[in-house]
Amino acid sequence: MPVLFVGHGSPMNAIEKNGYNRTWVSLARRLPRPRAIVSISAHWETEGSQVTAADRPRTIHDFYGFPKELFDLQYPAPGDPSLAITLCSTVKPVTLRPDLQWGLDHGTWSVLCHMYPEADIPVIQLSLDRTRDGAYHYNMGKQLRFLRDQGVLVMGSGNLVHNLAMVSWGSYPYDWAGEFDQKIRNWIQTGDHDALIHYEKQGKAASLSINSGEHFLPALYILAMQEAGEPVEFFNESILAASISMRGFLIGGAPVD
């Protein structure tokens, strides 16, 4: 299977019709149909690494101040407890614990409701250990490589540039946001994963673009699953509200519209 990072942006992308989610629909048509999906979302942070293991994960509306239509949206995809237990026994030396309380947050379902609207593919989520650095998360991604041979789609969901405190609707991108977004693109293209793992060492543009790491870290899982020489395709290459990059990338798949 290919592997995928999606810049998910606002929860409103779940119910609006726009170029971002039209591209997500196009992506699903190009990908082999997965037997299951493992999502690493920016919106599930824990102490220690966890994986959802419920049969029927709930749809989590982890936001406020949005229209009722968004809160009414459900994504009733089944879980996959057996896959969750496989991950717990395979991912080493990290202790990965099964979780029955979490479900699917909007980092996952706001994208999948467009890609797979029938909600008939099992979905589990892997949490982000907030106590760990980029190297830890990258190495966790390496542990997930075996899933590609089992027909499982691994999807990271966040935003490569994400500074909510400086959002400015209708404005041009900040210079630092555009600069760092392009640097990320170049590092991914040239395979310089070390620069991405140690993003906190990349200067002022990086510190403004990643003022907290949770939206960036899912990308490291996906990059860690790249095999030598595999192609990378970028999509949704734009910056929203001056400080949020919607850039996504697909590794190992067919070209994207």
From TrEMBL:
This is Dioxygenase. The keyword Zinc applies. Transmembrane segments: none annotated. Belongs to the DODA-type extradiol aromatic ring-opening dioxygenase family. One of its GO terms (molecular function) is zinc ion binding. Its cofactor is Zn(2+). SUPFAM superfamilies: LigB-like. Keywords: Dioxygenase, Metal-binding, Oxidoreductase, Zinc. Residues 28-233 form the Extradiol ring-cleavage dioxygenase class III enzyme subunit B domain. Pfam families: LigB (PF02900). NCBIfam families: PRK10628.1. The lineage of its organism: Bacteria, Bacillati, Chloroflexota, Anaerolineae, Anaerolineales. InterPro entries: Extradiol_dOase_DODA, Xdiol_dOase_suB. Signal peptide: none annotated. The keyword Zinc applies. CDD domains: 45_DOPA_Dioxygenase (cd07363).
